[in-house]
Design brief:
The protein contains 10 helices and 11 strands. By secondary structure, the protein is α/β, with parallel strands linked by helices. The structure holds adenosine-5'-triphosphate and magnesium ion (MG). The site of magnesium ion has 3 residues, from helix 1.
């Protein structure tokens, strides 16, 4: 096992996928800044007794001027949303049953502006325009109407919509891809250090999905935020991630953490390259092996 390192730009082959599953209690210099997110032996048991995640530990460092892109893969029901919502501080996932969920060294006490969440189902208020949906967080913060509209218009353009054409539309007048852009804009406008994305592109057609992946990569580079991105697509996890966390079937545990090639080419082109597909197939084999050895009780 190796400790996590900053991924270098590499040509992609299955050999470039490194196991970076960190030791649970990696020694840390006393002067080192706290990780941006750390789970220490976190278990969540819901009312009713479902053990959603068990003894989950990982750490993500606050990479200055970059931010790490973490993708999370795992079968349905393994606790991926539970992990994201624990970081977000949302109930009933928060608080954990045992263990510590830490953001910059502090136990998460509830939701906060340092963390923004984008859900799968394009959460938007149907009775609010695009502009008012995007400006909602600022409105809750008491930011004045002129400033919040100005910032919302800037953010609309950032996610590839047009302020002139789209700002006054209502969610039902938008396509799925456009609604997801609105949801992303509503998160970005708050400038969170940590962005939590729960299968945000799962319902999009393949072409729109590639475009949204490209958009997300460029926004991530600009924002320098740490992103946690849950997906069922190994291609998407490998393309977007610096690191991919593979979880076991429920109760969820971390099976492996892999350093994967960074997204340094457009999504559609890179995901068709034979070398990229080799990496995807090798991870698919790894997942199958890990899952069958977990089932066998190894
Ligand atoms: N509020 C809740 N109350 C009780 N059990 C819950 C609750 N939320 C989730 N669970 C259970 O916890 C386990 C993990 O759920 P979670 O939603 O985190 O899985 P997931 O990996 O996100 O699944 P999917 O890929 O289907 O979204 C599942 O068995 C689920 O039924
Ligand atoms: Mg989920």
């Amino acid at each position: 096992m190796t400790t996590p390192t900053t991924p270098e730009k590499v040509s992609i082959t299955p050999e470039t996928v490194k196991d970076v599953s960190a030791p649970v209690a990696a020694p840390v210099a006393p002067t080192a800044p706290p990780p941006i997110v750390e789970f220490r032996n976190v278990t969540k048991i819901y009312d009713g007794g479902t053990v959603a995640i068990k003894d989950v530990s990982f750490r993500v460092d606050d990479l200055a001027g970059k931010g790490e892109f973490i993708t999370i893969l795992g079968p349905s029901g393994c606790g991926k949303s539970t992990v994201l919502r624990l970081i977000a501080g949302l109930t009933p996932q928060h608080p954990p049953t045992s263990g510590d969920v830490l953001v910059l060294g502090q136990n998460v006490a509830g939701p906060g502006q340092d963390r923004g969440m984008v859900f799968q189902d394009y959460t938007a208020f149907d009775n609010r325009t695009v502009l008012d949906n995007i400006a909602f967080g600022l409105e809750c913060d008491g930011v004045g109407v002129a400033e919040r509209y100005e910032r919302a218009k800037e953010t609309i353009e950032k996610v590839g919509l047009s302020a002139a054409r789209d700002a006054h539309k209502y969610p039902h007048q938008l396509s799925g891809g456009m609604r997801q852009r609105v949801a992303i804009a509503g998160t970005l406008i708050m400038r969170p250090k940590i962005i939590l994305m729960d299968e945000p592109f799962g319902a999009l057609d393949p072409g729109t999905r590639y475009r949204m992946q490209d958009l997300l990569v460029s926004l991530w580079r600009e924002l320098e935020a740490t992103i946690f991105f849950v997906t069922h697509s190994i291609e998407e996890a490998v393309y977007l991630g610096d690191r991919t966390i593979i979880m076991s079937p429920g109760p969820g545990r971390i099976l492996q953490q892999l350093e994967v090639p960074p997204p340094d080419r457009p999504a559609k082109a890179m995901q068709r390259e034979p070398e990229f597909l080799q990496v995807v197939f090798s991870i698919r084999d790894t997942v199958e092996k890990l899952e069958s050895s977990t089932k066998a009780g190894d």
